[in-house]
Amino acid sequence: MRPTVHDIAAAAGVSLATVDRVLNRRPGVRGVTREKVEQAIERIGYIRDVAAANLAKSRVYPFVFILPSGDNSFMRGLEAQVRAAIGRSPAERTAISIVTVPAFNPEALVAALDEARATSPSGVAVVAIDSPDVIAAVDRLRGERIPVVTLVSDLAGSKRDHFAGVDNIAAGRTAASLMGRFLGGRSGPVAVLAGSMLVRDHRERLDGFSAVMNESFPGHALLPVLEGQDDPALAEQLVGEALAASPEIAGIYSLGAGNRGLIAALKRRRNGVPVCVIAHELTQHTRAALNDGLIDAILNQDAGHEVRSAIRVLKAKADGVAVIGAQERIRIDIFLKDNLPFERDGHDNQEPEPGRQD
Amino acid sequence: MRPTVHDIAAAAGVSLATVDRVLNRRPGVRGVTREKVEQAIERIGYIRDVAAANLAKSRVYPFVFILPSGDNSFMRGLEAQVRAAIGRSPAERTAISIVTVPAFNPEALVAALDEARATSPSGVAVVAIDSPDVIAAVDRLRGERIPVVTLVSDLAGSKRDHFAGVDNIAAGRTAASLMGRFLGGRSGPVAVLAGSMLVRDHRERLDGFSAVMNESFPGHALLPVLEGQDDPALAEQLVGEALAASPEIAGIYSLGAGNRGLIAALKRRRNGVPVCVIAHELTQHTRAALNDGLIDAILNQDAGHEVRSAIRVLKAKADGVAVIGAQERIRIDIFLKDNLPFERDGHDNQEPEPGRQD
DNA sequence: GAAAATTTGATGTACGTAAATCAGAAAATT
DNA sequence: AATTTTCTGATTTACGTACATCAAATTTTC
Q1: CATH number assigned to the domain comprising residue A25
Q2: Model confidence band, residue B322 (pLDDT cutoffs 50, 70, 90)
Q3: What integer is the mean pLDDT of A211-235?
Q4: Which residue has the least CA–C1' distance to nucleotide C13?
Q5: pLDDT beyond 50 at A213
Q6: pLDDT over 60 (residue B315)
Q7: Can you state the angle between helices B16-23 and B5-12, rounded to 10 degrees?
């Protein structure tokens, strides 16, 4: 049997109350006694039963998720996943609130972070914008020992506990590798459509993409980056202009959102060479375009995984327990037409039998 | 606050004992009363607190994992992941035992399944072999209401509760799609190296691969399948012979194990056209070969995810609660040189602070 | 309508931990 | 040495559920 607090008490030759004081960092224990208890814990290999502790405390984990607003499909999907997690709250003892702030607006994000801090939550997850003010706001949270997880876009230089998102440099490199190989012998320049260089994920993708294109496929020149602000209308305009100006464009890498606009521009195009298109994030629009052959490959990050991972990590940090590193690594999905997952899930043989438990 | 058993009792106008009898399917409750209670449960939206229930029962989940023996790197990695899960047993209330049986041997597998059944575990996970005897053995387990999850290779036609593995038809299709595009304009036939057509995952990969090659890339003929029994030595011999017999081979798809042999054969080769190689499962051998450019792409299933998913699903089935479908879908990882994950993990800012909890 | 059988209620203990109270022991201070 | 302060022990209640026991009420059976 797994040792309990009683076993520690016996092993250390102290009372249960003292063990409890040590375990929960309560005052009123002499240094020597504290040490005796800690050694006993170490010796008999005690691990606190988090389930029992949470039961005793009737603990809930109040978490705040801060997401960009706007009609970015990916971000709305992310929000839907957070709402799904809210639906699981009773079982998971979480109390999640969602705060949305205008995209690419550091001031608004700082305000939201400070507001979240005022509610003393058990943890905060945030889609970060790279800016010194935001770093400072995150570090203020950490200063109050509130765990912080960055979501989708990281915040280098901050004291955030964890990043729940993909390796965006690798994503960019992979996109370039696929682009180069898919283009095969064909020649022609490659265009890049981004959202904004303000967010780290977009910058990193571009860095990775440029590096591999220059190293391995120098025959394809990179055109100046189009910044579409993740806005479909703007993206459509920019891509349309680019295609008109350079009909010999052989490839387009869309590393941000606003793919609806990209797809519209591609559909409007009638002349010119075939274009190899690689885009990010699987949405209803990109999925349809992939099936139609307008897009050749989609790199995707699974928003559901990111949200669930963020919650697991925030819980673990709040409880001071270790996380399974490999489980929390968010992978880059590469979708071709051939490995698109079905829209709806569930391939189990039967429904659970409610109430049965043994 | 979330409703408890007391709230059901009050809402249904019965005693706690009666609620308990209904909830735990104990005898001694009249039909009308049972219905009253069940309606109250429905009405107030009661969900049993599994953590508290497990505490009260001091429940452990005895699970049996049945894996093929032999020096197949992927399977040994899978076993390592199960052992890692055993290391987490105290926290997860599991008691996992591992049984290994000779690969591709239905009789041995049936014996192992029946033996497992004799111990009345809370669940069984098994790397299945497609055979009527195995189906029958699995259905015997289900007959005793023991949840069964197939791992890596599925068992169609059986009553298994769930399959923790990838969509192997999609994997084969994806491999073909990559192969066709990577080959670009080049011509030449494509060879396929499999383990055994006895296991469903290999058959499905081949089906998917053949389908897309025939549909989309009819210029590349498919050579007869090489069955290497997942044995490196045999694989090396078969591939060596094939390359010698057809120096014009343009691509090789290795859909099973024994990639050490494939790589050795590729290294030995000095003449002939460049070969595009797509293999399955990221191991130290395939990883090195990908980095060296001997392999062009690796399709991978994450053994750790599969094991953790299997455990989550077995627990859920044993408790009669629902699973998060999307979370349990195992995805096909596509690795190019550019998105290889690091060998070791951990990109968190700091270690957990042991003992702290609030 | 009485006896037997069944159903229901009341109550207590347990699981492992948290948290509070109060009394007593040991230190530190005067 | 007496007093104050600090530490430690003993004990209790609670969290939500499981499970057992025994008494009381209800239904069924003859």
Answers
A1: 1.10.260.40
A2: confident
A3: 96
A4: B56
A5: yes
A6: yes
A7: 110
